[in-house]
Write a structure and sequence with these properties.
The complex is a heterodimer of chains A (608) and B (480).
Chain A (H helix, E strand, L loop, with lengths): L5 H29 L2 H10 E6 L6 E2 L5 E14 L10 H8 L3 H13 L4 E8 L1 H10 L4 E10 L6 H4 L2 E3 L2 H6 L8 E3 L2 H5 L1 H4 L4 E7 L5 E4 L15 E3 L3 H11 L4 E7 L4 E8 L12 H9 L9 H4 L9 H11 L13 E4 L2 E4 L9 H7 L2 H12 L7 H14 L21 H7 L23 H12 L3 E2 L5 E4 L13 E2 L7 H13 L15 E9 L2 E11 L6 E7 L9 H14 L5 H9 L10
Parallel strand pairs in A: 2-10
Antiparallel strand pairs in A: 1-8, 2-3, 3-4, 3-5, 6-7, 8-9, 10-16, 11-12, 11-20, 13-14, 15-17, 18-19, 19-20
Helix pairs in contact in A: 10-20, 13-15, 14-19
Chain B lengths: L14 H22 L13 H21 L2 H25 L1 E3 L2 E7 L2 E3 L1 H17 L9 H20 L3 H6 L4 H6 L4 H16 L5 H20 L3 H23 L6 H23 L3 H15 L3 H8 L2 H10 L10 H12 L12 H4 L11 H33 L4 H25 L17 H29 L1
Antiparallel strand pairs in B: 1-2, 2-3
The chains are: A alpha+beta (608), B mainly alpha (480).
Chain lengths: 608, 480
Amino acid sequence: MSGYNDLSRIRTLRAVVFLIFGAIVLRLAYIQLIDTRYKDMAQRNVLHPVTLYPARGEVYDRNGEFLVQSRECYDFMVVYKDLPRSGFDTLRICSILGITPEKLERELRNARMRPRAPRRILSFVPKEAKLLLDECNLRGFYTVYRTERQYPRKIGGNLLGYVGEVSPEMLKRYPDYNAGDYIGLTGVEAAYEDVLKGRNGLRIEEIDTHGAIKGSYMDGAFDTLPEHGKSIVCTIDARLQLFAEELMRGKVGAAVAIEPSTGEILMMVSSPTYDPDELVGRQRGNNYMKMLYNKRQPLFNRAVRAKYPPGSTFKLVQGLIGLQEGVLKPTDMYPCHSGYRSGRVRVKCHEHSSPLNLYFAVSTSCNAYFCYVFRNILDNPKYGSVKEGFDVWKEYVESFGFGRNLDTDFLGEGDGYVPDRQFYDKRYRGSWNSLTVLSLAIGQGELGCTPLQMANLAAIIANRGYYYIPHIVRSVEGQDSLDRRFYEKHYTKVDPKYFEPIVEGMWRGVNVDGTSRWAALPGYDVCGKTGTAQNPHGKDHSTFLSFAPRENPRIAISVYVENAGFGASMALPIASLLEEFYLTGEVKRQYMLDYVRNKEVYYPNYDK
Amino acid sequence: MTNSGRTNIFDGIDWKTVMLYVALTLVGFVCILSASFDEGSAEPWSMSHFYMKQLVWIGAAWGVAFVVMLLDSRYFHMLAYPAYALGILALVAVLIFGREVNGAKAWFQFGSVRIQPVEFAKIAVALAVARMMSGYSFSINRAGDLFRLAALLFLPLAIIVLQNDTGSGVVLCSFLFVFYREGLNKWLCIPVLLVVLLFIVSFLITPTTLLILLIVVFTVSEMMMNRIWRSRIIALAAVFLASILLHYTLQLCGVDKPYYLSLMIVSLVAAAVAAVYAYRSNLRNIYVIIALFVASMIFLPTTEHIFNSILKPHQQNRILNFLGLMDDVRGTGYNVNQSKIAIGSGGLFGKGFMNGTQIKYNFVPEKHTDFIFCTVGEEWGFVGSLVVLGLLCALILRLMKMGDRHEEPFGRVYCYCVASILLFHVLVNVGMTIGLMPVMGIPLPFVSYGGSSLIAFTIMLFIAVNLDASTRQQLGRRRF
């Protein structure tokens, strides 16, 4: 058979062998040496990253009491394909978790869509239930350590805010977060999210093709421990906050107290408030919807967002501007016969002796007096026209922190509203004068102030001319100081020397002959100013602005109660009780307490 | 074959082949150990582990090798046809009494031991082919002899395909390698290879294109075989012209049939004319071409039918997946994908012994049997793969060399048969793990786990070594 071409055939066949092995080697070289995708794929096959969740930072009040704690809780998870084929004790699981079998069935059906992926069946499983589940030794189910928020004092709903799972939209905005992470959504939780959240840890496990864990990857070389969130100390006084919430119960409005010497917010209540524990755990969704549809809007933080007309409390600002501008001297006397009248414009006032000076005008809250002052400011010949004068006035007002947010550390702070020249030009087609905008003189008209801004005004007057930016956090664990801006004095455009007459007026209003005499506290020189703000929504709003003691003031407070009538009838007793409680540590005026508790305020507008 | 057997069994043995064999079995043991070692096992020496069983099989295989070497080389020639008959009998028996594993009814079960007769049938077929081709009057290029040879191959092939063990059956196709070595006209090899290729890709082209391709290729092959040019080109042109004429005539008569039909009729008539021509001009090889052509014409258009009704769904999926017509990483493609990941992640030097995550954590299925090469690729990397492939390549080349130095055609044909079977196994087995070949369940010789395959390959190899040794002894005797 060995023909003439034997040798060439042997060579050909040898070439075929080399060709086949060459093809295999080339292909091997390609997938092993050139194409690096396979390394990643092998890793993705075998590596199973497990997120270790940190405990969220705790929040203390200024006296070291817990405002917010983190409680151990667990997510109950399932990996569908690991479930035993023979079935498991559904009813036992349901009874431990306190859910209906239908819900479990539904969740398991959902889990079946992606059988290899862990799926959460239930969050916020308490530790006791977790231990019971561990005893059952269920295959396919496991628990993951999480923390949930707990509020031992049950105060400061809007203030502290709440925590929720990151939504898909948020995930797009904040790439640092992963699905399933918790994030502070409002209040302090949101404002100090970076500090409180901590950092997720990671444990990389090796799994086999069935998903069973085989050990840790590289003996844990790439594992990280969760970094727990840092705790923060709030400026809030928990007991004062609790007392204020109790006093504000049944009323709609807000109360804010600031320590004038530091700008620390001692108390901040938006009423109606809610128990922050209601927005924790499984019932959160239901409770949230209930609150969302509550007509009194408990989720609306009135203390920093509402735009209330400041009413008579704003006369303090008018007086200060007048003094600074030189159009008013404390001894200047103006007449008041049940009001101010100029042409067809008329501003009513209550009965009091006339003529009167600045001190008495402040203490008795005379409308007419401040109409004169306001007109003198605007019509000052120095500025040529009313409009120029108005601009000057507006600059002064804004230097007191009105019409803009105060740049506090609290998110969602409102701006309030101070109208500008363009606003009136538009409304009155350019033809307006000091009479047209006269209602601004007594804090009415288009003015809108947040209760925080009003409390800040009280702090400015208490400090005689400057304020520290109000803030809610005193210190953060591991940080020496807060942002610089909280340590800077912010002066108004009114010289400190002009404040004394106004303070004198406020002191007299409480201690001598004014509208605020009920607020007097023996031994503490309380200064105060009532306000009764007309509004288009019914009965007048009651407001009171106060600080005490007169020298070295420790607390500046503003209380605003919607539709409660005179300033002295509701806002004043609340503010006074709070001052008494804060300054003396107790409340001796039981009658006043009973009065506040028993006095009902009706809100036909909300409760329609 | 005239002289008696050897006096000393170690005399004339090709020790290089034996060393390659021993090395491959040991590599196999290391891979199986790595693939099936269970760290958590209480008794690592228990006989229930694959690696312990393989150790026993390797010992048994070495013993069998020794026994084969004891036999007189003349017996193999003598026993070739009885062995073939026995092999066919065993294949038929397994078809009736066998046990079904993974969809293939190809196993005998004796207690805990499973035997796959196909492995042994391969030896019988190789012996029978060697015997037939070494006949004095046998000429590979004579049509009658070629048909006899084809029948010898197609009988076991048909039974193996009936067992649903297509992979093992296709191995027999590798004998083309031997036929080429023995002088088969290369212009006949090309159409055969083409038919195999067309069978795989026939889903992708229309029947008409397929037929035109067949006509052209077979005519050209015949042209090259007989080296007669002009008349063939004229005939080719005539066939196409006639088919077009027929097509339009039919259309004019109002019979609207596809062009395919006209072409088929004309080419069949032409085949008949060619047969007459072949008889007249005494060109017998044309019969072979015509037979192949008619067979492919019947076979190829029915591919789709065969594909849909004869192949099992998993086989269909494997082919579709390989051709890229279906991309299903979770289902059928899972094995190949995971195996590619295993090998690809090995890199240059691999992850080290027992450190392959794909292997250790069972991502690669059949990791100790058909996909054993993944262990090599993942744990020993490109370098390790080169070593194993180098061993296999050297063994195949060694067998070819042994064949070439035979004076007797029996030994030469047999050695080439063994080489071609090994080559085919390596190509398909390693090829499927790296996505070069569709998945066929055939083992990697000497390396994959499994007693019957190891022992069958050992017998097969050592018959070659034995034949070679006796030849060398004779040569040596003559030299002195």
